[in-house]
């Protein structure tokens, strides 16, 4: 069991913004490192997901890079270069590009998406190691209330 640093009273006085930022960076870095070990990037996976009618895409229709950037605007990071990531997927044959500049997921891209998705449970399990579901749910409820308290929207 990991020892907490500081008393409960000291922890309660800690700034939420600092710890949520540290947690975000640590979790994203961990996820991206695991995906890189498996031979793909998080933005590549998001491209496949956003273009698949079996996943995030509402209709399976092709999308342009600007359209994909807009669709991913709530989770894409500033350093993510969707054009460069799409170029890699085009080279792999996982995407195709039409004359109007829209990217489409190919059959092999869909197979890759399904294969890549199989790694999500093991990555999630590692992140959640030592945290029971009840504590996790409590943490999320606390974060959601902080969001509401500060005028944000919880979707």
In the sheet with the most strands, the strands line up as 1-2
Average pLDDT score: 93
The parts where pLDDT drops under 50 for at least 5 residues are: none
Radius of gyration, Cα only, in angstroms?
19 Å
C-alpha geometry = elongated
What is the share of helical residues? 55-70%
**Estimated structural class:** mainly alpha
* β-strand amount: under 5%
Strand tally: 2
Main β sheet profile: 2 strands, antiparallel
Number of helices: 8
What is the string of helix and strand elements? HHHHHEEHHH
N- to C-terminal distance = 34 Å
Entry keywords:
8 helices, elongated, mainly alpha, 155 residues
Task: Give your account of this protein's structure.
- This protein has eight helices and two strands; from the N terminus they run αααααββααα.
- A hairpin with a 5-residue loop joins β1 and β2.
- The chain has 155 residues and is mainly alpha-helical.
């Amino acid at each position: 069991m990991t020892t907490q640093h500081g008393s409960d009273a000291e922890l309660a006085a800690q700034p939420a913004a600092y710890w949520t930022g540290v947690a975000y960076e640590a979790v994203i870095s961990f996820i991206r490192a695991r995906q890189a070990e498996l031979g793909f990037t998080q933005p590549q996976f998001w491209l496949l997901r956003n273009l698949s009618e079996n996943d995030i895409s509402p209709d399976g229709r092709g999308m342009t890079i600007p359209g994909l950037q807009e669709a991913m605007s709530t989770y894409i990071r500033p350093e993510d270069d969707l054009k460069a990531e799409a170029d890699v997927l085009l080279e792999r044959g996982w995407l195709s590009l039409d004359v109007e500049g829209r990217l489409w997921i190919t059959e092999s891209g869909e197979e890759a998406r399904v294969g890549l998705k199989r790694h999500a449970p093991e990555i999630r399990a590692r992140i959640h190691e030592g945290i029971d579901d009840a504590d996790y749910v409590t943490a999320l409820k606390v974060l959601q209330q902080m969001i509401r308290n500060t005028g944000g929207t919880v979707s």
